[in-house]
Design brief:
The protein has 233 residues and is an alpha/beta fold. The chain has seven helices and seven strands. It has helices spanning 12-23, 39-47, 62-71, 101-121, 123-127, 153-174, 201-214, and strands at residues 3-6, 27-32, 52-56, 79-82, 133-137, 179-184, 223-225. Bound molecules: NADPH dihydro-nicotinamide-adenine-dinucleotide phosphate. Residues 7-8, 10-14, 32-34, 58-60, 83-87, 110, 114, 137, 139, 184-185, 187-188, 190-193, 197 line the site of NADPH dihydro-nicotinamide-adenine-dinucleotide phosphate.
């Protein structure tokens, strides 16, 4: 049985990842910040009591990451999905003159450092697995080549930095047979994406799963759109 660890799996894309992987028969370690209030995820856990467990994890808290890595020591994890993310500028207009640097720092703590922290802590678990995949849910907004409009300084730079860090990680873990992939999920109907987005979480995750099923070790370090096309840096 393959296994997967997912961050931010109480809602949005993370919840959908948890559901689809559990349905596919994977052993799912579904993590979120506040399990006591993760109603949808807890309902999913009841439906998949045999292969899904819920774990507390804030990706900015090193102590929680270390504790979970220790608790799962000896358990191979085929795929780590760094999904948790924040996008403050989506709700709060922060143009030049009103840039909120505390939000920017928090955006980096979650979107960039959080994903690297978690990946670092779980390298041994992934190395002990069969698939050996580390995945970062990035965004095409992290593509410098695709920046065509103003603003969103924090979110864009956090995802560009995430891509740069993950590309470096891909090189570092290559010798041990691990692969690292960055994925853009498309514009998706979640709290972050909003109701006007064209893609459902179901479609987006289905397409991203297909991408991950089609990749090979030589593709490690690449940045893919949900349809499998490569996004320029
Ligand atoms: P949502 O806002 O719906 O969900 C974000 C998730 O991240 C929530 O589970 C949230 O948990 C979690 N989270 C936030 N901060 C932390 C933290 N410090 N530790 C752990 N979990 C945290 O967003 P989406 O589902 O849309 O986004 C998922 C990923 O996809 C993100 O990385 C996002 O950048 C990316 N993405 C999304 C797009 C879209 O159109 N939806 C487009 C491009 C990329 P909590 O409920 O506790 O806040």
């Amino acid at each position: 049985m393959h296994s997967v660890l997912i961050t931010g799996s109480n809602r949005g894309l993370g919840l959908e990842w948890a559901e689809q992987m559990a349905e596919a028969g994977w052993r799912v370690y579904a993590t979120c910040r506040d399990p006591e209030h993760a109603d949808s995820l807890n309902m999913l856990q009841s439906a998949f009591a045999k292969n899904l467990t819920v774990h507390r994890l804030d990706v900015t808290h090193q102590d929680e990451i270390s504790a979970l890595a220790e608790a799962l020591r000896g358990h191979p994890i085929d795929r780590v999905i760094n999904n948790a993310g924040v996008y403050f500028e989506k709700y709060l207009d922060e143009p030049l003159g009103q840039i909120n640097y505390q939000h920017w720092e928090e955006t980096f703590r979650v979107n960039t450092l959080g994903a690297v922290r978690l990946s670092e802590a779980f390298v041994e678990h992934v190395a002990a697995s069969r698939l050996k995949q580390i995945v970062a849910i990035s965004s095409h907004m992290g593509s410098i080549a695709e920046i065509a409009v103003e603003g969103d300084y924090a979110y864009r730079s956090s995802k560009a930095a995430l891509n740069a860090a993950m590309k470096g990680l891909a090189h570092e873990v290559q010798a041990r047979g691990l692969s690292v992939f960055m994925l853009h999920p498309g514009w998706v109907q979640t709290r972050m994406g909003g109701p006007g987005a064209p893609l459902t979480t179901m479609d987006s995750v289905k397409r991203m799963r297909q991408v991950l099923e089609g990749v090979q070790a030589k593709d490690s370090g690449r940045f893919f759109r949900y349809d499998g096309s490569v996004i320029p840096w």
